[in-house]
């Protein structure tokens, strides 16, 4: 068991659902095919060696990418993590044996190809492991930012004061407010490294908005929801609530007029698109509003977490125009099975 843990620490299983990882794998393979004939010292011509290696590298690489894409969810549970690298490498060797046996038959060619395949495969997993280790400081910083970007104290105190004032006159609203507040804090205390689902994120966001509407009034804060994306789509933990808190704090509370927030989610092909729009008050407009000082911590924190989770597959951008602040997010669509224990544990 200790040896398996050491192997798991030296080598990392690449995420072949990620376009950036697949691109690095393909480019590294092409580079190896072009460089190996130069250092092999074989009397064969350079182009012939490239052709020979391409015959078995191409199909093997394609099958491994397909296998990694469709079987990735089997290796995702934490209980299998220590064995995932070893099992995946053994499966990759089986794929190599089948491809090489079909295309080539001489034993000396097989031995050479077997050595090259395992050298490259283990080398790539070692490089991926070193790359993830190098990102450890960024992961720690992102977790720290997640802690500091959680529910603002002013929201907590205002919500509790609102609940106290409602207990006698509107006990049902006070009870609803406190229940939603408890659910939000339960979500906040979850391990930030765990992923969530879009359906759960929508539920937490709606609970947060319900609290603000009880506190500020339904006429002051209005939200339009257009949720047309699958609920089982995997997302980072606390994706929407901090963004909506920013929208309320900087967009609605900073003006004396009623505020209107829009939340859109759609699913197109292999992507999930999320858009949040809220009123935008320029900092130089002091006649009609008292704008709060800008705070981009939530956006920066989310950008870091998206980069760590999806590499360059996920995108987030913000735009300020015509009195509206808009945040657009694009995520790769990955299904995640529902698990109530992980959602509320």
Model description:
This protein has 345 residues and is of the alpha+beta class. It folds into 2 domains: 1-149, no CATH class; 153-332, Heat Shock Protein 90 (2-Layer Sandwich). Helices cover 60% and strands 14% of the residues. It has 12 helices and 7 strands. The strands form 2 sheets. A 5-stranded mixed beta sheet has the order 2-4-5-7-6. Strand 6 and strand 7 form a beta hairpin. Helix 8 packs across helix 9 (198-216). The two termini are 28 Å apart. 26% of the residues are buried. Residues 338-345 have low confidence and may be disordered.
How big is the Rg? 26 Å
Please state the overall shape, judged from the principal axes of the Cα atoms.
Answer: elongated
Query: How many helix segments?
Result: 12
Let me know the largest β-sheet: 5 strands, mixed
**Low-pLDDT residue intervals, each spanning 5 or more residues:** 338-345
Strand content: 5-15%
CATH homologous superfamily classification of the largest domain: Histidine kinase-like ATPase, C-terminal domain
Domain Signal transduction histidine kinase internal region: 142-218
GO molecular function: phosphorelay sensor kinase activity
Transmembrane segments: 21-41, 53-71, 83-103
InterPro entries: Bact_2-comp_sensor_kinase, HATPase_C_sf, Sig_transdc_His_kin_internal
